[in-house]
Amino acid sequence: MEWQYDWELSFSFFIVLYLFFYLLYLLRLYRVSRVLGSYFRRHVLYKFLLRSLALACLLLALLGPSWGRSLQKITVEGKDIFFCVDLSESMNTRDISPSRLARVKFELKRMVQSLAGNRLGIVMFSNEAFMQCPLTYDPSALNLFLDALNTKLVPRTGTDFEPPLRMAFEKLKKDPIVYGKKVAKVIVLISDGEDFGDQAEELVPKIKQAGIHMFTLGIGTTQGGNVPGTHGGKKYDKKGKEVRSRLQTKTLRNLAALANGKYFEINREQNGVNSLLEELNEIQGVERESRVRDLGSNKYAYALLAALLFLCI
């Protein structure tokens, strides 16, 4: 027989306390019987034995008695996933609280936690693309890079979906085989949909042909909001009009359809991140690691049943 847990000093202390107070109880019972002129009956000793056995069984259950063995195969599967994050000025719009970009960073951290075991990377972009974090298994590193994301990291000259998609595509197609198997590869494009380029739709069929899955995630509302200025307040165009930004879903939907993927959305009424996670988890990943773990069979329930039996008696 083996034990799941070690004997702790607190167990010994609890047993000493139990014996001490039970001894005080027996002495009190003996004095009462003397005063009443009754006999100190044997059933008192029987109760002490039964209660002590119940306590012993409870302690055995806490220690986790184990016998018999069971083998369990643990398989770690993974995918390569690039998140392309829009850092154009319109992502500072606060139609989604606290802002579009802040909400994206929060949801990405949640996704990083849910996608543990996969290689994840981040490409940031406006009209140009930059590698913020290469593919890595390290969630702590990813979270640090996510914390650093802000719209000042990229040029403020509009938005173009083609550069980030091309960068992620080029990085993913470099290593088509891992551990002798073709790796599942995914691109997730995250933006408010304002695309001023015209070459993304020509690139997406190549991404699809390479066997790379692609999804788009829109952030914002159709009502939109004012784009904050550089030094606070509102941003104005050259004519002195307030610059407003609205979620534009047409391009994001078209790109997802061309890639045979899906479009998801985050707005005030819905959060498509959970649905996106379900889609990502359904994609078959390559087996990166497989090992057999020898598990002991914990039989604590038998000790608990014995304790219950003694207490009932």
Structure report:
The chain has about 325 residues and is α/β, with parallel strands linked by helices. The chain is built from nine helices and 13 strands. The chain has helices at about 10-35, 45-65, 100-115, 140-150, 160-170, 200-210, 250-260, 275-280, 300-310, and strands spanning about 1-5, 65-80, 80-85, 120-125, 130-135, 175-180, 180, 185-190, 215-220, 225, 245, 265, 285-300. A hairpin with a 3-residue loop joins β4 and β5 (about 130-135). α2 (about 45-65) packs antiparallel against α9, α3 runs antiparallel to α4 and α5 runs parallel beside α6 (about 200-210). The model has no long low-confidence stretch (mean pLDDT about 85).
Helices and strands, with pairings:
Elements: E1 2-3, H1 9-36, H2 43-63, E2 65-78, E3 80-86, H3 100-114, E4 119-125, E5 129-136, H4 139-148, H5 162-172, E6 177-178, E7 181-182, E8 185-191, H6 200-209, E9 213-219, E10 225-226, E11 244-245, H7 250-258, E12 263-266, H8 273-282, E13 286-298, H9 300-312
Parallel strand pairs: 3-4, 3-8, 8-9, 9-12
Antiparallel strand pairs: 1-2, 2-13, 4-5, 6-7, 10-11
Helix pairs in contact: 2-9, 3-4, 5-6
